[in-house]
Every structure is written in structure tokens, then in C-alpha cells.
Amino acid sequence: MSPNGTPDASLRLVNAVLLPGFHGTEPPPWLLDAVDAGLAGVVYFAHNVPDPKTAAALSATLYARRADLIVASDEEGGDVTRLEAATGSSYPGNGALGEVDDTDVTERVARAIGHDLRAAGIGLNLAPDVDVNADPDNPVIGIRAFGSDAALVARHSAAYVTGLQSAGVAACAKHFPGHGDTAVDSHLRVPHLSADLDLLRRRDLLPFTAAIAAGSRCLMTGHIKALPFGDAPASLNPEATRLARHELGFTGAVVTDALDMGAVLADPGFGPACVQAVLGGADLLCLGNPASAEAAALSYATARDALLEALAAGVLPADRLADAGRRARELADWIVAARATPPPPKEDALPLAVARTALRVRGNVALGPAPYLIDLRQRVNHASGSRSPHLNRLLTEAMPGLTATGVPPEGPTATRADTALQGSADRPLVVVAREPHRDAAETALLRELIARRPDAVVVLTGWPHAVDALAANTVVTYGSGRVNAQAAVERLLGGTPHGG
Question: Domain Glycoside hydrolase family 3 N-terminal spans what residues (predicted)?
Fold first, then answer.
């Protein structure tokens, strides 16, 4: 019997599908007990891995407890990083890679990311994001996608999977069946994908098909209500999993997006969502990012108990749990075998060269001394957990006398512009924005600032769409990672274009 009186066999069946998060840089006692009782693995978030040395030590502790534990994290490059959350990613993300559009480069960048994950003891990367960013107003995918063209996204998705797994780290294509043609962030509410099955096959499913053909060991289902599958989000929906397995031929492990996200947290609720996800065909349940040590323990206990109760009541068949656990073990076995093979050499100079090549520069963008910087970015990116301050920080370090300010969150456009421009007279002006086209008020403010200061340099860190046409002097970085910022700062300081 287990400590709480549950038969060990049932507890092991349940634990074998769980991927909890936890708080801190050392595994808490409840987590170690769960590992001993057959836990599938863990997911690292930024607070677990503040630096590479700490990450490697944490992984070593967990592997000493059980060598076949799955250790997973999100390391997309660009805007989304866990290992480099404090400093920003040193790798260009998908947006920049898609803009360069060289699949050999994408494969090599993914291999380098895999090299870093290997060193940190992370065997499953919850990447790449293979969504086709078909809706320009998408609030959560955007620059995390390779682009809006399905064929381009497909070829880079395959290249990323190949590169990452050549470094001995399992890939996970996400967010099935496609989060790109949505206008709602699933961290907050349920997005609806209105495409019919024919459009899904021609557009959204193409990159998943390519990633699967490239050998992706894992596939992540999104909390997306897709028209062909009815009312349940894909992460809880057997129709979505059936399509992935029977039509696309996927035989690896299906993992859910984080089950603490707003799209499923209110309805059906965390515990019921865990049960529905396994019934829907998921093999691994990503439980999410806990806000505290207490929340982490409660999250795991709630998921465990919900599955145990459903199993005992006959709602959740033991065969379904056993099948899910088998696929999770197959993934773990692949990771263990891959870890035994030395990774290929790392290309240290490649990421900056790619970020330089991805830049789109127009007009005179060289800044004079003591510039004035206005940052229009006010929305938090829920996927990255930040507003990405790396460009501002690097410019401040490189240009003594720089003044950086934001804008008032509300008020008439002219008044907001007046406030933002205070102190900018006779100084070079740089305005930083992410994707202002998604916010009419932000676009209006950008127009007002440019009308008053036509000499301003506008730096866009997301997809430019038509917004960069508003200004004569623009730099588009296609990402907010540290390496994107480094490439932009070089140009703003008067550097010349570099090949890559």
C-alpha cells in the first residue's frame, strides 16, 4: 500500500501519466515520493532553472533518484525560454528563422538549443511551435510561429525536429491541431478554431504532418475548440487524438498543454480536465506552472486523486491508463538511449549571425548620443512571462545618457503622446513596439509619435505586418530574445549589415 492507503498498482498507473511542475531549485519531498512511485516526469519553469549550473545540478539530483525520469521544459528560442529567462534567449526564435527561410540554419539552431538542454539534463523540449500564424491578431502565437505560410512552417518544423533530436533531446510539436488562426490566448480563455476539416488539412495540419514525418517523439494538444471536433478542447478530445493517430500516423506520446491554463481551469475544472484528457487520448498531463510550493503540491495531489477516483469508479479504464503509461515509457526509453550518445559540437557564432540576417532595416536607424527611448509594449506575453526588456537594457548599457520611458496606459492619444515625449526635445528618439497592429489605441499612439517626430527610429520586435510602413526609419527584429536585441543594437549604434 502507498502512504495514503492507495494500492501501489493504481498509484503507479496514475503517476505514470503525470508531468507536474514544482517550486524552487530542489525537488520537494512530495515530488521525490511521487518519483519513487512511478511518476512519469517533471516540467521545469524559469524559477527552477535560474542558471545552467543550477539546472544541471537539479537534473542530476532527479536522475539519481530514477534514471528514466522525463525532464521537460519549454525552450523555443526567441521570446520563450526557461534556461535564459533572466537574460533573454541567446537563440533566434521561429519568427526570425522563418524570415531567414534556410532550413539548414533552422536545423543547426535547433541542434544548438538541444546541446544546451542536454547540458542542463533536460530530455524533452516542449517545442517546436508549429502553428501557422494565419490570424494577424493572434495574441499568443505571433512571432513564436515560423510564419503564416503553411508550406514554409512545415519545412521549418521538420528541420527543427531533426536538429533538436540529433542533439539527443526529444521534440514536441505543438499546439495540435493548430493555435495560429485564433484571436484568444488559451492561457486566459478558450480559443475557437473555425476552420473546417478541409482547411485544417491544407493549412494547420501540414506542419504537424511534417514534424511527425521527421520523427517528432511527442505532440502537444492545445486547449482549442476546433470546429470539426465539437465542443471539447482538443486537449480533452478523443476526436483530435484520433485524427493525429489514424490520419497523420503519429505513434509517439501525446502531451497536453498546461492544465492550469484559463481555457480549461474554469470549465471543466482542473481535476475533471485531468480525467477528460486521459480519456481523450493524452498520454502525459502537463500540470502547469505553480505559483508557490504549496500550490505545486496541491496541483499534483489534485490531479493524482482525480485520476485515482475515476479509476476506482470505473470511469477511467485501467487499460487506457496502461496504454498512456506505455507510450510515456517509450518516450523515456528514447531519451535515456539518446543521453548515452555524445551530442554534436555546438556552433557558438551561429545564433547572432542568424539574428543579424533576419533584421529588416529601412531608412536611417543610427542613433546619435543620449537618445530618448519610448517603449509602447504594455501587454505581458503569457507564454514568456515577461515584456522582454533586453533591447532596452542593452541600449542603456551601450549608450550613456539614454533615457527610457513608457506611456500612460489610458487617456486621449494626444495627451499620452505629450507625456511620453516629455524630455525628448533635441534628442534622438527610438520607439519600441511589439505588434501594435493588434491594438488600435497603440497604433494611433505610434502614428501620433511619428507625426510629431518623423525622424524617430521605430523598432518592432514582432511581425511587422503594415505597421513599419508608418515610419521612415524602422528596424524589425522578428523576436524579443537577447540575441535579437543584440543584432538590433548593433545597427542602432551605426553598425553595418552582417551576413549569416
Answer: 37-327
